[in-house]
Amino acid sequence: MGYLPIDSTLEDIPSWPESLARPNLESFDPETIVFPSDLDDNLELPIVATFYSHKGGVGRSTALAYTAQILASRGRRVLCVDMDLEAPSLAALFGKEGEIKPEQGLVEILLELDREENPKIIEHVLRLSATEELYCLPAGIPSANYARKLWLMDPEAWYREERNPLRELMVMLGDLPFEPDVVLLDARSGISPISGPVLFDLADVAIASFYPNPQFERGTANLVRGLLASKTRRRELSLTPEVRFVVSPIPNTTAEMEERIKQKAMEWIREWITVGGKKVFDESEITCFVDYQEAIATSDKILPDSDIWQNFDPIAKWLESFL
Questions:
Q1: What sign for the dihedral angle of Cα 214, 218, 221, 223?
Q2: Residue 187 resides in a domain
Q3: Which of 116, 250, 264, 280 could make an SS bond with 212 (beta carbons 3.0 to 4.6 A apart)?
Q4: What angle do CA 134, 318, 41 make, to 5 degrees?
Q5: 288 phi and psi, to 5 degrees?
Q6: How far, in whole angstroms, is CA 277 from its chain's centroid?
Q7: How many whole angstroms separate alpha carbon 50 and alpha carbon 204?
Q8: What is the pLDDT of residue 76?
């Protein structure tokens, strides 16, 4: 076990156990919580947004991919990073999985950084469009060798050391030749070693996808409480990650049933974002509802039809507000 850096304590480690064990938010003064949107000045680019869901099946990666498409179509420089290391699929969603080479990808980069090497990040990045600034950093190619490398990684231990591969990675991503405006991180569902830091430390904005049924309620509530008690890697600003919600998929049903689903989701969100008896956000401004679309559900990759993207436009607008 490594030693903690001089300016760190065990409670500073952005793992799930430490993040969920922080003080009860009911004792917090909401006036002391500072979000990126509270600042007078824009954050230094790139903005980092982490897409997460407690369980799969709610279109987390799909939301990320279409949001990336929208932002790139508006002239933004966008980098998508597959942080779902146990089940990598982001490159496939963009139809680029066949372009990944052996020894290419995020897992290889992180292990090289852990060995105090200096990987050339740009050699691992795939360009997704010939006309737009849209890129993907894949996790790698799943194989026996990939699995062995994955078992060597210990993200929590990195936060006990002077050198932290995840923090170093974020600096290097910002220094890429195409200078991304936005970095979109696709996080592993559930409680995993890598999703803790990706949410509670690296994210300026955490975008939580869920459907209002009991399978998602407690897990998503825990996520929000952990986020509201966290501070991002931008320590000099003492910022708490912004939180946004994507409720998906809203089924094609009666108007009455659809409204019932939406109201239930909003009730949960109101409860989750209440700190010390006061809401820290207006739930209507931080929630996006995504309707079920058969074309999306039955496609094995994202579609070029911009009409299909419209469901995800509010997510893109959230991120553009920080640029």
A1: negative
A2: yes
A3: 264
A4: 95
A5: -120, 130
A6: 27
A7: 8
A8: 98
Please give the tally of structural domains in the chain: 1
Closest CA relative to residue 170, chosen from 42, 316, 6, 49: 49
CATH number, domain with residue 97: 3.40.50.300
Domain assignment present for residue 145? The answer is yes
Helices (H), the chain: 16-20, 60-73, 90-93, 106-114, 144-152, 155-158, 165-174, 195-200, 214-228, 255-272, 294-297, 306-309, 313-320
Tokens, residue 218: 């407690």
Q: What is the largest CA-CA distance in the chain?
A: 58
C-alpha to C-alpha distance for 154 and 35, rounded to whole angstroms: 29
Query: Could you give the CA distance from residue 139 to residue 225 in angstroms, rounded to a whole number?
Result: 28
Q: What is the mean pLDDT of residues 4-23?
A: 70
Model confidence at 284: pLDDT above 70: yes
Question: How far, in Å, CA of 148 to CA of 227, rounded?
Answer: 31
Return d(Cα 270, Cα 250) in angstroms, integer. 19
What domain range includes position 213? Answer: 10-320
Q: Flag whether 4 is in a domain.
A: no
What's the rounded Cα separation, in Å, for the pair 38 and 51?
21
- Residue 82, domain member (yes or no): yes
pLDDT at 261 over 50: yes
Q: Are 22 and 11 in contact (CB under 8 A)?
A: yes
pLDDT per position as a tens digit, 164-208? 999 999 999 999 999 999 999 999 999 999 999 999 999 999 999
pLDDT in tens, 38-90: 999 999 999 999 999 999 999 999 999 999 999 999 999 999 999 999 999 99
Counting DSSP H helices and E strands in the chain, the numbers are 13, 10
Segment holding 247, helix H or strand E: strand 242-250
